[in-house]
Design brief:
The complex is a heterodimer of chains A (474) and B (95). Chain A contains 15 helices and eleven strands. Chain A has 474 residues and is α/β, with parallel strands linked by helices. In chain A, α5 packs parallel to α6, α7 packs antiparallel against α15 and α9 crosses α12. The longest helix of chain A has 22 residues. Chain A has a single domain, classed as Amidase signature (AS) domain (Amidase signature (AS) enzymes). The radius of gyration of chain B is 23 Å and the shape is flat. The chains are: A alpha/beta (474), B mainly alpha (95). Chains A and B meet through α9, α10, α11 and α12 of A and α1 and α2 of B.
């Protein structure tokens, strides 16, 4: 028995064909055999067995009974430390549980551990984590590829079958890009579908929780469990959450897919253009009408993002001052010195760069020219999508401009690294849902991803279109 | 925008991050190239465009002004690098 899907595992658990202990042991052993991937920052067998005992002794009718999951280390967890991939939160033990992870615990799932991620979710390769790189499990023999980022540990853990699903967060592509690099499904829902309460904040107007799984059905199951209003996050939407799994329907006939011409870039590798073309043809065969659309401000999305996200980050990360939690430098004698040294020693290079950029664009005299300008461009990008959705039901693009690349590449040039998110950032700025599903392979046999985007709160449509492409993959 | 060493030091001071002498040059040049790159936005005409700062459809809810007192000082202090009785402790501020 392979045990790589939630649907199958739930069926076996609920019919007593396998016990929760037996199921989780399979994954615990895989984690131990794959320590070299460095997918987890925290993993403790005793902690897992305590969780299992609690579920076994409960009579509750759980929807995710015994399902082993990985939790991105950006979600605060009451029974596991939470580091956000940073030295500054080394040994931080939250006294509360994030809303999203609490919902998963309430349904009887088992947290196998905390998944590695870029420091404060700032990165596209899980190379900025203080706890070391995660290695992409699909790396060919003799090479070490990045898993993408920032939720690289989560994506790698699902891809290597170290768990049945994982949580992630996506601010500019941090779920979709690693899903594409690792060959798994990853969804970033509409901004506001899930509560951000208890998720360590990076850029609050963009951050959104989501999930990774091995297929669309499992993604639909997990998404429903993490979605929903929360009084503690006033940006979370108060609306009925559909049963995405039961509503799955791969009949796409009559739908209109939009193909944005601005996503056709001259330096995109041929194999990526090819799978994009193949996905369009595949949908066409399923009765989908193809419409060429325009999202004219696409090329300004990344620059706007790299003003807005660092600005919000510089403000959110002001709280790490060595006073209330986390690391404190031993060196400083005055209070100011203590702050400066704590933050200098506690934050990594990329985080410091972004805090500095954010501080600059928000500083007196520059606020209008940078931050306000970026927010105006954000409006134009959002308007582009609104207009496009008058002509089509959903949009199809590649997820990332390349397959997974070797560890160490692009590290000397921040902007080169930022370009990883060129196809994912526009949807983040508009707050619309996006999913990446594995589709086709690169010339070297690496997984590639296709991204599907839809209107606010129309997660069902991208799941359905994703299901169609999953069944009609090349 | 060219960020010179003094500007880098000024921003670093504003956000309380100590920058070592040997880091200043590389950092200044990286910040300059990032800012040069984002300045591409100046090509876009944004006259009469409202800034978009929130994409949430949720409206800010009202709640009853009820007090919800819970003593969580123990939990709150549990992660403090240094504490004294029921307080966070920091280096001396007043001589």
């Amino acid at each position: 028995m392979e045990f790589n899907t939630i649907t199958e595992s739930l069926e076996k658990i609920n019919s007593n064909k396998i016990s929760i202990v037996e199921l989780n042991d399979i994954f615990i052993n895989r984690i131990k055999k794959n320590k070299n991937l460095n997918a987890f920052i925290y993993f403790d067998e005793e902690n897992i067995s305590q969780q299992i005992k609690k579920i076994q002794s409960s009579k509750k009718n759980f929807k995710l009974k015994g399902i082993p999951l990985a939790i991105k280390d950006l979600f605060c967890t009451k029974n596991m430390p939470t580091t956000a991939g940073s030295k500054i939160l080394q040994n931080f033990q939250p006294s509360y549980e994030s809303h999203v992870s609490q919902k998963l615990l309430d349904q009887g799932s088992i947290f196998l551990g905390k998944a590695n991620c870029d420091e404060f979710a700032m990165g596209s390769a899980t190379n900025t984590s203080y706890y070391g790189n995660t290695i992409n499990p699909i790396s060919p023999r003799g090479s070490q590829l990045v898993p993408g980022g920032s939720s690289g540990g989560s994506a790698a853990a699902v891809a290597a079958n170290l768990c049945l699903g994982a949580t992630g967060t996506d601010t500019g592509g941090s779920i979709r890009q690693p899903a594409s690099f690792c060959g798994v499904v990853g969804i970033k829902p509409t901004y506001g579908l899930c509560s951000r309460w208890g998720i360590i904040a990076f850029a609050s107007s963009l951050d959104q929780a989501g999930v990774f799984a091995n297929n669309i059905a499992d993604t639909a199951i997990l998404l429903r469990e993490i979605a929903g209003h929360d009084n503690k996050d006033s940006t979370s939407a108060n609306r009925e959450i559909p049963n995405y799994f039961e509503n799955l329907n791969q009949d796409m006939s009559g739908k209109v897919v939009g193909v944005p011409k601005e996503y056709i870039l001259p330096d995109i590798p041929e194999d990526i253009s090819k799978i994009w073309e193949q996905a369009i043809k595949s949908l066409e065969r399923g009765g989908v009408k193809v419409k060429n659309i325009s999202l004219p401000h696409t090329k300004y999305a990344l620059p706007a993002y790299y003003i807005i996200a660092p600005a919000e980050a510089s403000s959110n990360l002001a709280r790490y001052d060595g006073v209330r939690y986390g690391f404190r430098s031993e060196e400083g004698t005055s209070l100011d010195e203590m702050y400066e040294l704590t933050r200098s020693e506690g934050f990594g290079k990329e985080v410091k760069r972004r805090v500095l950029i954010g501080t600059y664009v928000l500083s007196a005299g520059y606020y209008e020219a940078y931050y306000m300008k970026a927010q105006k461009v954000r409006r134009l990008i959002s308007n582009d999508f609104n207009e496009a959705f008058n002509e089509c039901d959903f949009i199809l693009t590649p997820t990332a401009p390349s397959p997974a690349f070797p560890i160490g590449e692009k590290e000397d040039d921040p902007i080169k690294m930022y370009l990883n998110d060129i196809f994912t950032v526009p949807a983040s700025l508009a707050g619309i849902p996006g999913i990446s599903i594995p589709f086709g392979k690169s010339q070297n046999g690496l997984p590639l991803g296709i991204q599907l985007l839809s209107k606010h709160f129309d997660e069902q449509l991208v799941l359905n279109a994703g299901l169609y492409l999953e069944k009609n993959n090349v | 925008m060219k960020i010179d060493k003094n500007t880098t030091l000024k921003i670093a001071k504003l956000c309380r991050i100590k920058v070592r002498d040997e880091e200043i040059e590389e950092l200044s040049s990286q910040l300059s190239s990032i800012l040069d790159w984002v300045e591409k936005l100046n090509e876009v005409n944004t006259d009469n465009i409202e800034p978009l700062n929130n994409v949430s459809i949720a409206t800010l809810p009202l709640r009853k002004d009820k007090e919800n007192l819970q003593d969580q000082s123990k939990e709150v202090l549990s992660n403090a690098p240094e504490k004294l009785e029921n307080y966070f402790a920091v280096p001396k501020v007043v001589e």
